[in-house]
Amino acid sequence: MANIFANVGLNMDQLDLNRIYRFGFGAEFFDNINETFNGITYTDIFAAGWSYGGEEYGSLFGGRSIGYSSVTGHITGGTVTGYIEAVLSDGYYAATWGTERASVSAVSLYKAGLTRSTTDDMAIMRSLLGGNDRFDLSNMADLVRGHGGDDTILGRGGHDRLFGGAGHDRIDGGTGADLICGGAGRDLLLGGADRARDVFLFRSVADSRPDKDHDTIRNFIPGIDDIDLRPIDARPAACDQAFTFSGSTARAWSVWCVDTGPDILVRADVTGDGRADFEILVANVDRLTASDFLL
User: Rounded mean pLDDT of the chain?
Assistant: First the structure.
């Protein structure tokens, strides 16, 4: 289980370890230093300084049994369990984002930093985030992907784009106009109570199956927030057809609502039999209309 934190806007899609190598101006290895950050002790630390976009950054890779050749400057072994990235501001380095309680091959990270392609960077992130991870994000605009596992993603402030991936995730957008996508699994999706427009995105019927496997949306504000079903093909055999909204009546290739008392069940059919192939529970709302959906 890894913990990701961000103090400024984090965009995981723009991760590029090669910047550390390409724009680096110095590096140092600290063996058996046993330094503690945020209550976590790192036996070894590799530190690198680099410049990008007119700013000066520092990157710290902490872990155990990290091997370093003073002759070649190469990382030769060990495991990285934490990473902190910081920017120089008013003479001090302030942490921008990082990951803790991780487990990544130090050599794999080093090799990924040598290549201009970010394909290997993204592969490392998918592997790193394959467990039950926690994201504590910034009050700015963040974009993160939980990948596998049962993740907790806390968007806090800003206009965030939060993707859970596989697993039973809990995604809380916090304040701001957020895009929230649970992905596969039984997810709990929470919008904000600040009346900013949140969009709950579903890209496949597999994202929210009927009955016990459905997702739950909380803090949905009708007339402000939207449920986006546009990526789902209502009639796969007819080539990318949009759903129609049929109110409270179940119909073929349609979206309809079932009032269960305190909640609304949103159901959709993609096989033409008028039965639910897809279902979302929207908690504590009295009524949904066609204007609450993007179809």
Answer: 96
